[in-house]
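Let's study my pick:
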Amino acid sequence: MIKSPGSIRFSSATIHKLSECYQIDVTADSGTIVIFSKKPGHGLNCSMCKDEGPSQTCNSNLRLTEAQPTTVTFNCSQPGDVFNVEINQEIDCLTTDCSIIAVHPDSTRFLEFTRTFTWDLKVQPGKVFQLDFPSPGMRQIKPSESCPDKHTYTITVYQRTGPANIGSFCRNGTISRIQVLYRGRVTLEVPRGTDLNPSDFKVSMGPTATGVVEMDVRLPRGPFSVDFFTPNYAKGYYDEQKMKWNFAVKPMHNFTVQFQHYTPPECQNKKVVCDYALGDKTSFTVAPTDTQPANKQGDFSLTLTTCDVKSVANVSGLSLNFNVEVFRSGTPYLWTVDLWNKEGLSLQIENKNPESYCEMSLNSVTQEKIVVPAGTKADLSFLDCPMQDLQLTATKVIDCPSVSARDLTIPTLDPSLPLPLHQFTWLLRLQDQGTVDLMSPKGSKLHQSLPDKQCNERVSLLISETEGSSIGQFCSVAEGTIQKIQIKGNVSITVTPKNIKDLSQEKEPFLQFGISPEIMENVIYTVSPLISGPMYLATPNWPDSMNPSSSASWIVYIPQDYMAELLFSNVSKPKCDSGHTEVSIGPLDSQGQTQSWREDQSFPSPFVQQQSFYLNMSNCEPKSDRFAVLSKISLQKETKKLLGIILAIVGVLLLLIIVTLIVVCVIRKRKNKPKTNRSSIYMPRGKPVLPGNAGFPKSRTDNESHVYASIDDPTMYRHSDKNQPAEVDNGAWSNGHQVDAYHPFMGPTDSVPAATDSSAEYALDRREGDAFQPFLNPPNTFNLPRPRSPLVSQGSLGFEDRRMMDNALNTFKSVGDINPIRLSADESRLQPQMDSDSDTHTEPEYEEAM
């Protein structure tokens, strides 16, 4: 038993290459044997020695089994021409189940030698050892053939009659599993100078043996053909044993078995027979010389039973080489395509479902993808191809010699076309240096489809440069913003349906194109932002990087009375290997200032433009990262004219408010005086009446007609100033109106007793000569009684006359300084007439002066 059957370790710590000597150090793992053997008839003068000094031994063959460093010396400079190396491992499953042991030869040493890796496999009697190969499996070859990758596997089985070669195998085949009786050997041979690249097969103990060998084969989709060989092919197999092949066939496929080279043995008894089993129920037996199964469906197995061959010299054994072919079943659909009269139009058909069993043919040749060139006629065949799995695309090449505008429309295809048109591409090729101008043909504008604002139209247009660099996805909408796209050089335009299934039904033009002189930039967009919402500008090939050393420009037209706010919302900057990236903004009239920024500078955000402008972006030769920019433009009303209008309106409103406030204040002061503070009394002869809306329902003793609310207007009593005599007034203070003269109450008149107050604080100073002129000339038809002056606090006495409007009479300037009220000359001549109340009632209380 070995500790690690899948691990082999070799080391050459010291390598000496002298003119006549080659020395290596070798260390093998436990259970691994390294054998150096001389090729027959080579290098008679080259010997091989183990170790050095007195313990050195030399021989033509060297077998190393110790798990310790061993020095091997060759007395020739090219030992690989003389010696082979074999690395051997034993995998013993007699005492264990050997459950799936992976074999990984990992030695990259001994490249100077032809290397042979061997695995000796042992299992319990009556069992088989099983080899599982990774996909795509192994392919059996003739013993005389070699493998393309120079890695040849050989499987040998040991029987009582001697070893038998099960076969030679290469990688990349259809055999997924091989089971071999009892014990055997797996060999991998790699020639000198070839790096080791082994197949990681797995080893395990299989079930009870039913024959000398059994192979599991997975046949691929047809058409396909593969060969198989019996053990000891060409030499002959002599033992009476069974050989079995199990075939897995794909659905919708038929198979046919053909015996190509058959050498019958000389049997002592019995015969060679072939047993077939189709599925789980059908089985039959035929002789090797009979016709083998043909055009059958489903999985099947073939068991070949040999006979007991005579053990006589020069008697041939069994040799068989048979072939299995698989092909598609069913009836294909045929369709003829004629593109002779379709200038520049070609068709492509591809199966998009790799799991389906669709088989397509072009002119009877099976194709994975069918391409019908322009100007040709072809016969197509479809076998078991669901229409939903097939994709039809068309391409039309247009040479553009003129500058006249043309529409891009899909040409009429064959009405018998069984497939819907999934995609159509125009290739616009310029004969000379020029620019392709693309516009919407319907009077609308183009819209670029971006993650935040994708196209929801019937179709989507992918515009690219013919070198493969994408400009972007676009659609033609009523509220688009792109008036024109100008692209330098040849252009590719691909239309793909979004809300429809068949493009061939679309008859309207998708785009209009024209030719103009060559531009400096790779692409120029002419755009008009919307007032209703923002507009996004994306660099070509967004969100991926712009092409190195390429440039793009946007010509942005701003409506009158609007300004644009440009925001760089998403910016990816590269690290430049040569040159710099640059972003420039400037007005279209070439009168304003142009501003620009590089990748090592920060972009302003937002950037405001008050007139139409251009935006240019150019990429450098990036060393790392990428250059991609997404910008947003929003329109706003121009603020200059609007501000002037707003200020004018505000000024007018303020003026109206001021005038209104003045008027309201005047009206309120004239009309909205408190009714309880009546200051002037008009008493015609007869029944007393109050002017205005109020009257006197009571006698004087019951009302407040004689109460003075306030007299507090120094401008009306300039004579109260001690520095201004009362006689020098000349009526200026009264605005030219005569006012009533008022004398302060000094005591009772006639028979009315004088009112006295014990408090010295209320002593009144008697003054003569002060004149009080009324606003209205008093009538001569009645006498106005003189009101009594109450003996109250000096600060609370007030008087108010309704006829005096807004004038207030202040009788006292300060506490303790009494200012007498003058009566007019006319009133002074009148004799006071007291009400009857005044003789029998005391004076009512007066309000405090406000």
Notes: Residues 639-671 form the longest helix (33 residues). The longest strand covers residues 253-263. Helices lie at 639-671, 825-829, 837-840. The chain has four domains: 94-326, 390-635, 641-672, 676-850.
